[in-house]
């Protein structure tokens, strides 16, 4: 019996190997005309996974690897990508969906944006383009989506905030584009106070406090190329410290990297306005769950959390349908990391193309799912009984 099961498992594994990007013919169509070191025409990029392919062609091995790598055996990295297809959609038909695009705009912590997704905070934008994060600021402004800037950006903090587009305000009388600022904090209270003052003065609208990186990520692929984590020390972060931090700023502090329902509950009890579900793109601790699995755990055990605070989530989101599955559980906005990092090889136009493609996919996928209004999507649109990936 044991032999039979093992045999079955290995056959299934052999039959369905992991593919970084599912084969949709990009190599056949663009491979011969895109030598290493060059980019294909931007208009030939038809979906988010294409930008991984393009960046792999264009960037040198270590730059591409810094963006692409995951922790250890990269099981979480792969699971983030694969988990979405384990849950089947439940499309409804004969529904009037013609106004679906009107329901894409949303608010994120009170700021108005054109879509329920954002550019997740990622370090070292300069590995793909000399203008680095400035392309994210500009692309986000032109697309009216949210950009969360990383503390470990290639461009300086001042340059990033100076690049904001005036008149692209999402809120009230403020005339500046609304950005959120990601931080890695330590128990050095004075340093944190100074950092918060700088962030407030610059006009950021929220502080995204990464909590999933208590230690260096165990990154084998990156180590091979000598491109380790930007944040490599042990860091002390506790809810006691969080309370000290909240006294230093009027901005909301959002914990990024919540991975269990227990921590989601604790965050709510400690008064946060939003939580951000993430396993850091599978880059920190291998075999941590994808944010879809965490959202499902919260939905099953403490669904009220989706009403009490705004919930953001990221990891492996590459298609409109991925976004829909997270929104169906009550997630308010979805982060996209690597596709935007890769798209920056094309500069600001690449960043804008990722945004446009994802907006379009969200709308057409919602329509085909029979969702008339994105704000009304609910868990009934997905069969939450997982299909076993290895035997499907
Ligand atoms: C190249 C790269 C750099 C990153 N840098 C940071 C960072 O500085 N701070 C942070 O909180 N998360 C960082 N992340 C994690 C992202 O914010 C996000 O959680 C992750 O990329 C989402 O997964 P995805 O890339 O599959 O979309 C980084 C991710 C990548 C790919």
Automatic annotation (TrEMBL):
Superkingdom: Eukaryota
Pfam families per the UniProt record, alphabetical: FMN_dh (PF01070)
Binding site for FMN: 121-123, 150, 182, 210, 256, 278, 314-318, 337-338
Ranges where the FMN hydroxy acid dehydrogenase domain occurs: 40-387
GO molecular function: FMN binding; oxidoreductase activity
Location of the active site: 280 (proton acceptor)
Positions that bind glyoxylate: 66, 184, 219, 280, 283
Cofactor(s) it depends on: FMN
Keywords noted in UniProt: Flavoprotein, FMN, Oxidoreductase
Similarity-based family: Belongs to the FMN-dependent alpha-hydroxy acid dehydrogenase family.
Name of protein: FMN-dependent alpha-hydroxy acid dehydrogenase
